[in-house]
Amino acid sequence: MATTAPRLGMHGIGKSFGRVPVLTDVDLTVDPGEVVALLGSNGAGKSTLMKILTGLYNRDGGTIQVDGEAVDFKDPAAAVASGVKLLPQEISVMPDMTVAENIFLGDMPLKRKFGIKQVDKDAMRIRSRELLDQLGFANILPDMLVKRLSVAEQRIVEIARALAGKARILVMDEPTAALTEQEAKMIFKIIRRLKENKVSVIYISHYLSEVFEISDRIVVLRDGRNAGTFITADTKRAEVLAAMLGNTVDDLYDVGTPGVAGAEILNVEKLTIPRKLEDVAFSLHQNEILGIFGLVGSGVEVLGRALYGALGPLKTAEVRLGGQSYRPMSARNGKLAGIGFVAAERKKEGIIADLTVRENIALPFEERFERGLFMSQAEEAQHAIRWIGELGIRTRGPEQKIRTLSGGNQQKVCIARWLVEGVKLLILEEPTRGVDVGARREIYGKLRELANRGYAVLILSSDVEEVAGISDRSLVLDRGRIVGHFERGAKPAELMAATGNDPAFQAP
Amino acid sequence: MAQSIETHTPSGAREQMLSLFGKPWSGVAMLGIFYLILIAVFSVLSPYFLTLRNMLNIGGNVAYIGLMAAAGTPLIIAGGLDLSVAAIAGLTGVVISMLYGMGFPIWIGVLLAIVVAAAIGVVNGLFTTRLRLNPLIVTLGMMSIISGIALVLTGGLTRPLMVPGFNWVGSGRVIGIPIPFIIMMVTFVGLWIVMTKMRFGRYIYAAGGNAEASRLIGIPLEKTVITLYVISAISGAIAGTILGAMLGAAGPTAAGSQLLTVIAAIILGGTSLNGGRGSVWGTLLAVLILGTLNNGLTLLNVSSFWQDVTRGVVLMLAVSLDQIRTRALGE
């Protein structure tokens, strides 16, 4: 290492969006054939750093060197040309093309026949075969249609594509997200092969156990800064967690005193959805905020909407709502039973962009603003104005189109919708996703206020700090099961540690 | 006024233009201006154009098209599309004339045709909502089925439909105003009230604006959309009745060629094909513009083939302008 330049050297990288700094003076080096895990909680700056590396974003400051040479990628194509390749979390293959065509997508070998340039299919097949053999997958045939492959095999095709493009630095973003354990092992096998071939890998994952299994070195980011670099073999999991999450208590969550839990509002038992949730049970009371934390794929994405009814009738679940037996059937049914639901994807599932703030707020319970046959726009407006005031929604007025509001204010509208007589339970998925820090604090404050007014609040989130910070009690979901119960004041690291309970992945 | 414009920098003036351009009502206002210009131009070119008689004629002639366009507007706003509506109009005339020929009272035929149309609307609605099929394909198929049945029933022939009381619906007038025009205007006003003043209207815009969000809010999406398909289909039946009464004959393909005019009018009127946006007044203006264009060109002795070309040009121009307007509004 002393004499040769590292494969990648990023130094003093800075980036801000508007006036908000996202990265400050960040360093990252990777040696040839080294696997470096890049860790950090949501919003720590991992993906921004990788987008700068792969030419998707311009940096504001700092230098990037590949094999000792200064580079400046203006677009992703320039990065790919220098051998820097990103494998995004979502697999991007062409399902109706063959394996070979996918591997050489964008750079197919050509030959000239009858004076016309055309794709050299034989060359493509032969080179695909070589690449797949090199990765150790003789069972994947170049002529197979990619849609016939398993998700894991599609991943492998993607990796082969990166190698065909002579990738020297491979950025893998949660490569095992949609895979089973066995399949994940397969990916690790490939990464080891890549190491042998001196390909450098930057590995992004939320799963600490994976990181400890595959990486040589761990680089941790927190709040857009370097928060520690560890040699994996000499490091304990707790040290990494401490670096990731910090030990300071954030005043983000210091937003009012919790009340005393009242009557039981929700009781869930034996909730099972095949392949997604397994025998989930918990209860939730009036005046209480219950947070459920889980990583992507843990079931945290489905639990809330399943209870609300948005996934259709639940066959295996015993649910009591406000003391009465309740069977999740449909969203409409859940609403009428007194559940308010705020979905994770605000743009796709929350706001109706072309409608006004007033209409967005009044929409779920329009019948309450009806006078005879007609809507009372005045009453809708009055109701909207009340909640614009109480939730501190920054808008020019109830007639402003919701799409012109900031993410945080849109989210408040999505909450305001449900604040009517008769709703007792609020279920919120990722309540502050895509919301800036200032608005996050406000939303936490309003949730606390609502709980103190008597609502039962259920939060489902993949943001461990959020769950630990705001909840009166918290649960941890992992692979569809509840694996941890915590009282108020639990540290984010404790919650995070609870997810890594799989013995097969037991880290040092 | 003039002074205030002068004091603006060029970019300020441009911004002002853009913001004016970006007002929600600017689309309908632009159509209105275009309509007035069109009337002015034809008035200059033809002495017969700007007479009360001719204007009322235009109103009467476009009525059955306007009726279908009116009902199609909320459907497209809600994210649907009905290509079968004109075929339903054709089938309606056939059903009425056949039943009348069999000795039933004429209004029984009308009633039955409306019931049949409503059933077709339910089928369209069920296929697109329950089976989540693309409305373009479902209603295209339905169009083919219905016009096929109409041809089978008549053997492709046009049947006479001369019943004095009935023909009055097509050609009669009340204080000088053609009855078809009155029916159309009542429909427009009625739909406007439903769409802006009633709960159902809120659901229409919500369903087309964001179907998934609407479902998660617990809005009765399917019911809303199916109802709109039924309304559209019934508008086809009434349009077919009016057309049959006007012509004194029922042809299986009588209205088929007007399908494109119906869709063109809705789009020209500023309704987004992606759903969520639009108004019936835009559609009404567009119907009048297309009707005026036809009428004016006919008065000027322009061949009807050129009228198709003109209609296409106007449509593409209007849609381009609307696209520019939407961009000015900002994503």
TrEMBL record, chain A:
The keyword Transport applies. Residues 8-248, 260-508 form the ABC transporter domain. InterPro entries: AAA+_ATPase, ABC_carbohydrate_import_ATPase, ABC_transporter-like_ATP-bd, ABC_transporter-like_CS, P-loop_NTPase. Keywords: ATP-binding, Nucleotide-binding, Repeat, Sugar transport, Transport. GO terms for molecular function: ATP binding. It holds the Pfam family ABC_tran. PROSITE patterns: ABC_TRANSPORTER_1 (PS00211), ABC_TRANSPORTER_2 (PS50893). Belongs to the ABC transporter superfamily. This is Sugar ABC transporter ATP-binding protein. It comes from Kaistia terrae. The lineage of its organism: Bacteria, Pseudomonadati, Pseudomonadota, Alphaproteobacteria, Hyphomicrobiales.
UniProtKB/TrEMBL annotation, chain B:
InterPro entries: ABC_transp_permease. It is a multi-pass membrane protein. Its main location: membrane. Coiled coil: none annotated. Signal peptide: none annotated. It is found in: Cell membrane. The keyword DNA repair does not apply. The chain crosses the membrane at residues 27-50, 62-92, 104-126, 133-154, 174-194, 225-249, 255-273, 280-306. Keywords: Cell inner membrane, Cell membrane, Membrane, Transmembrane, Transmembrane helix, Transport. PANTHER family: ABC TRANSPORTER PERMEASE PROTEIN YPHD-RELATED, ABC TRANSPORTER PERMEASE PROTEIN YPHD-RELATED-RELATED. This is ABC transporter permease.
